[in-house]
Amino acid sequence: MGFEAFLGNSKAVTAVREMLACGRVPGALLFAGPDGVGKKTLALMLAKALNCQKRLPGGDDFCGECPHCRKAEEFLTASREDLTRRRESKDAQKRTDGLLYSISS
Ligand SMILES: [Zn+2]
Known about the structure:
By secondary structure, the protein is mainly α. The protein contains three helices and no strands. The protein has helices at about 10-20, 40-50, 65-105. Zinc ion binds near residues 54, 62 and 65.
């Protein structure tokens, strides 16, 4: 599994893969866009590729199987769970705010 697992925004994925292929990744990158477009996922995939011990031929993709890739995947899974928890908390807060608004008006 590599960058092909990223769905959508092929322009951003291509840009990241080109940076990896030519070995010139800037010291800082800004992933910007609306919620849910995959900014964090692509950033973590890039981190995985930069740390992969068996980067695939062409140098623009990660193996997904070496210890570094597996560790990064654990981090990605944990961050997804955290995002789900934060969204649930935010939704609960909205419901509470709505309830308080209904009571006070
Ligand atoms: Zn790897």
